[in-house]
């Protein structure tokens, strides 16, 4: 149900987004939310991801970016809720709802209004909060955060000042100053290089008659309370933790590809019968936004080698290192994982609490 804020005041207003980066369209939604309730909760998505061109800023940095764009009197009325990417709509909605209610100190009778707009199919989550009034605004100008990031990282050299000057009509002055200061950090040049690598990779597929859909495999191998991980040696995700895996080859099954990638990247090579016996599950991860590369569907194979001492491994191919990591330590490494690989491990090992 869509209701004009002029018709009713609410106890709590809610804005949901990734805010990478914060622009005038999002600021307009936030002003609407602040006008409709004394307390506004901003749910920050992709809250615990590693830094990438798609998610360059931590949730704390984004919260500060938003605070700086508000008048001093309004800043104390805003609370921030970090929400991880679950790649599971029902679980994500549950986490948002539970977090909002806890932050608001909600009791029976608390009224909530969700302020947002329907940009495209990704905005359907707005209809997933029964019991909250939906205040759906029209699009607030032709502003897109992805385009802002492209301009930011695509002009990482001497053109940065001119680029920021050209964005004055799209983002608050405080956001542009934040971006200018942030560009002095070492992350900026690293992510700009990664952004360029991704741009070149996507350009190679630009002439395809259909958007490409890639099929990959991953090998989740547990042994003695540990899981086998690599550090990626190349972009995208250079230096980040990942499950061993890669692209399927033309004459392979997904199982054969998983074994080959596992051996190539970690040197782990057990008898075929042992690996077949150790295979416990295969799960397809196919969320449209799971990979920076575009549409990538992976088949994750779970192997359990039992409680024995983990075998020796040696990184090769496109892995910079390979190591057995205790499963109990994975939750503390969430912001070091490539793409959705932490989510894959969470699926198999239940690393995060479920709302």
UniProtKB/TrEMBL annotation:
<dbReference type="Pfam" id="PF01467">
    <property type="entry name" value="CTP_transf_like"/>
</dbReference>
<keyword id="KW-0808">Transferase</keyword>
<feature type="domain" description="Nudix hydrolase">
    <location>
        <begin position="209"/>
        <end position="348"/>
    </location>
</feature>
<dbReference type="GO" id="GO:0016779">
    <property type="term" value="F:nucleotidyltransferase activity"/>
</dbReference>
<dbReference type="InterPro" id="IPR000086">
    <property type="entry name" value="NUDIX_hydrolase_dom"/>
</dbReference>
<dbReference type="InterPro" id="IPR004821">
    <property type="entry name" value="Cyt_trans-like"/>
</dbReference>
<dbReference type="InterPro" id="IPR015797">
    <property type="entry name" value="NUDIX_hydrolase-like_dom_sf"/>
</dbReference>
<dbReference type="InterPro" id="IPR014729">
    <property type="entry name" value="Rossmann-like_a/b/a_fold"/>
</dbReference>
<dbReference type="Pfam" id="PF00293">
    <property type="entry name" value="NUDIX"/>
</dbReference>
<keyword id="KW-0548">Nucleotidyltransferase</keyword>
<protein>
    <submittedName>
        <fullName>Cytidyltransferase-related domain protein</fullName>
    </submittedName>
</protein>
